[in-house]
């Protein structure tokens, strides 16, 4: 195969010929992007304004995950949200409508990606990080099967808690508890908030994630997520219910931050649906003869391989600042292995 060029979000430009695909394979990985792993230059010092603008552009234009979720949020607000006056009081009708919408979207995203990448294997192993597949006949998983374990935790626990927070914030908008703005009242803030949300989502994710890796909490809660060493689309939202409570709890920020409901819907999609892509196990989605869309995150793939590193994501360099960054190099691997050994020996 030979593919056209693809510009990944927040990374360097990839040459996507067969030669390049072969060149970036290694003993540890089937494929990996150019190293070291790139993170946002937004907080670099000295400032890098050109690199920062380019990073935002590659995350939003011309067609990226961010833009897809933003357009979906707009369509959802226009077509799939119960009337606000109906949501002033709690009732099963509109709550089940929200739950069904979230359930269907999660199935479409996670199962659609799973079927394309792992069921039909439409792009074979091109851009696949890990050589291993999903675990079967493994007693650590429900029904000894990683796929059905991940599927169950995602839909029964994940979608339920996503909907729980949806209900709280929608009642806030309907009853005036949550500050709601419009694009007409503040157009600058309306568009700026879309750029800022991935940044403060990264803040929340990093510190929650570091807490979950405290050995006592890890063994009882976060280990459910990390059973999936070789990750796939259903793995991302497969978590212990307590972790879902903390992870989706970021949605409560909209009870305090002035925003349009479109921002709130976007954040829900970014927290929930984007786990299917970030854990896809592939860097790019190939359609036809072109790598059209960056989906996976090698930054987070390193976390699932080595555990005690890359607790955040590339939107903010928290890992760089607090000594938990793994850039994909052998030196970083050795450092992280020592950290993991020290942490779990002391626990």
TrEMBL record:
Establish whether keyword RNA-binding is in the entry: no
Task: List each copy of the Fatty acid hydroxylase domain by range.
Answer: 194-324
| InterPro entries the record matches | Fatty_acid_hydroxylase, Sterol_Desaturase_Related
Where does the protein end up? Membrane
UniProt keywords (A-Z) are: Membrane, Transmembrane, Transmembrane helix
Domain of life (superkingdom): Bacteria
Chief subcellular location equals membrane
- Pfam families (alphabetical): FA_hydroxylase
Keyword Protein transport (UniProt): no
Name recorded for this polypeptide: Fatty acid hydroxylase superfamily protein
Q: To which species is this protein native?
A: Ruegeria atlantica
